[in-house]
Amino acid sequence: MIDFHCHIDLYPNPKEIVEGIAQRGMYVLAVTTTPRTWQRTRQIVSNADRIKVALGLHPELVAERHSEVDLLCSLLPEARYVGEIGLDGSPQHRPSLGLQKQVLNKILSACNTLGGRILSMHSRCAVTEVLDSLETHSATNVPVLHWFSGTTREAASAAELGCWFSVGPAMARSNKGRKLIESIDQARIVTETDGPFVRNGDSPLMPWHALNAEMVLSEVWGLSAEETSRLLQNNFRRLIASLPTALVTQ
Ligand code: MN
């Protein structure tokens, strides 16, 4: 099982989450919202080799913390995974969209210079802008659009640019989300939870609730649970294998 986008450092008990992940033998990409928390989160997961920590600067925090982009870029040589990064054009964050673009472009060009990273990307209400930035600044990276909520046409453009998609239980709850999933090539999908931001009733989703996303995908794809799980494992292996081999460390 794979959770390719969750925020381990934001659970009240990150150590227990790390243990729960290890017990289940699952693979997890722990994204971070600021470069400072990347350093801390790496310490929390230090012995867990199936958990990777992505270096991020969340677009919703850019208005306040844009100056941390320099710290992010200075840490980038050590980081194989980058995220959460991207753009948020929803009404609350629209005022900082110009600044968000500057920050994103700076991060993407720095990634490009280094020779490619896997990027976990936020694109709420700004898919076209995210794809424009990727097209201009990011030929050698592998973007994974997390919780994609654009149109099927935008999903197709994203796939043409080489994007992958991480799909969570929340995306699968709505009809629009299911239609999107149907429109995306099965070979470009991995699962995520976006926990603890995404909740199920009163409780936050745990990384192992990625299984709920697997169940929805098996329904949409008309495959058995085993077939779905095998397909997703294969996707994950291909995604990881697309990284330059020189980047063997976390
Ligand atoms: Mn997130």
Shape: globular
How are the strands of the largest sheet arranged?
Answer: 4-5-6-7-8
Strand count, sense and barrel status of the largest sheet are: 5 strands, parallel
State the end-to-end distance: 20 Å
Strand content: 15-25%
Structural class: alpha/beta
Description:
The chain has 250 residues and is α/β, with parallel strands linked by helices. Helix content is 45%, strand content 16%. The chain is built from eleven helices and ten strands. It has helices spanning 14-24, 35-44, 62-65, 69-75, 97-114, 127-137, 152-160, 169-173, 175-183, 210-221, 225-241, and strands at residues 2-6, 27-30, 51-53, 81-86, 118-122, 142-146, 164-167, 189-191, 199-200, 203-204. The strands form three sheets. The chain has a five-stranded parallel beta sheet with strand order 4-5-6-7-8. A three-stranded parallel beta sheet has the order 1-2-3. The longest helix is centred in the middle third of the chain and has 18 residues, at 97-114. Bound molecules: manganese (II) ion.
Keywords:
250 residues; 5-stranded parallel beta sheet; 11 helices; 3-stranded parallel beta sheet; alpha/beta; disordered C terminus; binds manganese (II) ion
Secondary structure layout plus pairing:
Blueprint: E1 2-6, H1 14-24, E2 27-30, H2 35-44, E3 51-53, H3 62-65, H4 69-75, E4 81-86, H5 97-114, E5 118-122, H6 127-137, E6 142-146, H7 152-160, E7 164-167, H8 169-173, H9 175-183, E8 189-191, E9 199-200, E10 203-204, H10 210-221, H11 225-241
Helix pairs in contact: 5-6, 10-11
The structure holds manganese (II) ion.
Overview in brief:
The chain has helices spanning 14-24, 35-44, 62-65, 69-75, 97-114, 127-137, 152-160, 169-173, 175-183, 210-221, 225-241, and strands spanning 2-6, 27-30, 51-53, 81-86, 118-122, 142-146, 164-167, 189-191, 199-200, 203-204.
